[in-house]
Design a protein that fits this description.
- By secondary structure, this protein is mostly helical.
- The protein has two domains: 49 residues, no CATH class; 29 residues, no CATH class.
- The protein has four helices and two strands, in the order H-H-H-H-E-E.
- The protein has a two-stranded antiparallel ribbon.
- A hairpin with a 2-residue loop joins strand 1 and strand 2.
- Helix 1 crosses helix 3.
- It is elongated, with a radius of gyration of 20 Å.
Length: 96
């Protein structure tokens, strides 16, 4: 099997957001410690795409809850979501 370092699509032939989406997808397939170097490699001189993807990679989702609040409620697990403790469930009338 021959592996190529080229991305699956040629970056210069697709729109900006498509580029960001494609590049982000490719970069996320790499281990965290290899992502920035790989991003530099596949973006080349395209600093705009590099900056956009780099900013998206900066979001650390490790503190987000692994389940939705509704699943936590129905499963009877402790009443915390990430760094937050649930004090009480709001009545839907309180949302208005």
């Amino acid at each position: 099997m021959i592996l190529s370092k080229k991305p699956l699509v040629e970056i210069s032939k697709i729109s900006s957001w498509q580029k960001v989406s494609e590049v982000l997808g490719l970069v996320l397939e790499k281990p965290k410690n290899e992502r920035l170097d790989y991003l530099k490699e596949i973006c080349g001189e395209d600093k705009e795409i590099f900056a956009e993807v780099e900013s998206l990679l900066a979001f650390d989702t490790s503190n987000f809850p692994s389940q939705s609040p509704l699943l936590l409620k129905s499963s009877g697990k402790d009443k915390s979501i990430g760094n937050y403790n649930l004090i009480k469930e709001m009545d839907t009338a309180e949302w208005a």
